[in-house]
Amino acid sequence: MLRMTLMAAVLAAPAVAQELRAPDQITGANDAARSAALFTEMGKVLQHPRCLNCHPVTGGPTQGDDMHPHNPPIVRGEADFGAAGLNCNSCHGTENIPYLTRTGSIPGHDPWQLAPVSMGWQGRSLAEICAQIKDPARNGGKDLAAILDHHARDGLVGWGWAPGEGRTPAPGSQQLFGELTRAWIDTGAVCPAG
Amino acid sequence: MTTLTINGAERTLDVDPDTPLLWVLRDELRLTGTKFGCGVAQCGACTVMLNGMPRRACVTPIRTLAGADVTTIEGMSGREYDAVQAAWRALDVPQCGWCQSGQVMSATMLLQQLPAPTDQQIDEAMAGNICRCATYHRIRTAIHDAARTLEG
Question: Where is the 2Fe-2S ferredoxin-type domain (chain B) (predicted)?
Fold first, then answer.
C-alpha cells in the first residue's frame, strides 16, 4: 500500500519538476564543452514555465505549468506593462498574495512586468536563448558580469523560486543558478550547439 | 494599524493586516459602491484607484497600503470620469449594475492614458472587467462617446 501511495505521488508530480545540478557535477571534455553543458543545465531554469511565462515572443504573458494564455487576456503594451487602462499592476502587487476565497495566490513583485521583446524566449532553442542572453543589443546592454549579477541577485528573477501557493518553483535555487552562471562565464560562456 | 487616505480623507484602520481592501471598504467603511465579484482578481468588479491607477481591491491586503491614496467610485471626480459617467447614463450602460463601478474605473483610466482609443484598445483595456449582463457593446460605445465629448 505504501509503495502504491509513493508511486502515485511520483506520478502526480508536475512534469516540470526537476533537480538542478551544481557546477562541480557538470563535466566536459574541455572548457568549451563543459561551458556549453553548464548553460544546458541553466536551461532547466531559463526554460521553466516560471521564467518563460513572462518571456513571450509575441503577444502577452502565459500562465501555469502548461503555459496557457493569461486570463484575463493581456497584451504586452508599449511599456511591456499591459494595455492602457489594464496595466500589470491592476492585479499584481508587490508580493504574492494568497487568495482568501479559495486556494492559490496571485503572484506579485516590485517590479512586475514582461521581459522586453528582445528577451522573448518562448519556443526558442537553448542555443538561441544563449545567443540572446549574451548579446548586449538584446539583453539590455549587459556584459557578462552584469548577466551574472542579474541571474544571482535580481529580485524578479528570484521570484521564480518563491512563486507563491499554487505554482511550481523553478528548479534548484537562485544561489545555485548564480553559481552555474559564474561557472559558465569562467569557462568561456560557450553556447550549446543547435 | 494602517493609515491611508480614502476618498480624500485620512483613515486609520485597526483591522487584521491581511484584510483585503475590499473588505475594509465594504464592511468597515460602508463604501458599498465597490463590489465583490470573484475574490481572485478575475472579474474587475472590485476595481478602485490606488495612487491614481486601477487596482483590484480583493487582492490588496490593507497592510500594503500604509500612506496610500485610494479612491472608490464614491470619491471619483475629474474630466474623464465626468465624461464616462455622462456617457454611461445617456446609453443606459448599467443593467444589473454589479460590475459597473469597476467598469467605470477602467474606462476612466483608459481615457486618461488614451484620449481617443480604438475598438481594439478599448477591448484590451476592458478585458479584465467582466459583465454578466454582457453590456460590452454599450460599454464600448459609451467610451467612444465619452472620448468625443473630451475632444473639445
Answer: 1-76
